[in-house]
Amino acid sequence: MKYDCDVILDLLPLYTRKKLSKRSIQVVEEHLSECPSCRVQYANGMYDDNFDKEFDADSIRYTRRKKNHVFLRLFILLLFAGLICAGLAFLSYANYGTYNFIETAQNLIKNTFGS
Ligand SMILES: [Zn+2]
């Protein structure tokens, strides 16, 4: 036998899902024809259970982590938008005695960049 049983048992979940290359399929089938122990495990599906569970848990964890990142970015963006609005409100009231954001923003641009 060219390959260890451990290697073949690792490949069996992918073999049953037809996710292997032609060469790997050949390796698995050659091994199964020569190795009674792996043949029994393959026939009983004994290699399969943990693979699915681990795979699902990993992909769920990954998706959750990704979603958390999106919410965090959105939160930070909203926080900055809120701070800018609060800053404009404060400036407009302090400098011009009004809560008109647009007028304040225009005045701010005028005062900062001239013209
Ligand atoms: Zn074997």
Major β-sheet annotation: none
Uncertain runs are: none
Per DSSP E runs of 2 or more residues, the count of β-strands stands at: 0
The DSSP helix count reads: 5
Q: Which class best fits the helix and strand makeup? A: mainly alpha
Provide the list of bound ligands, each named once. zinc ion
What can you see in these coordinates?
The protein is mostly helical. It has five helices and no strands. It has helices spanning 5-16, 22-34, 36-44, 49-96, 101-113. Helices cover 83% and strands 0% of the residues. Helix 1 packs parallel to helix 3 (36-44), helix 2 crosses helix 3 and helix 4 (49-96) crosses helix 5. Zinc ion binds next to helix 1 and helix 3. Zinc ion binds at residues 5, 8, 31, 35, 37-38.
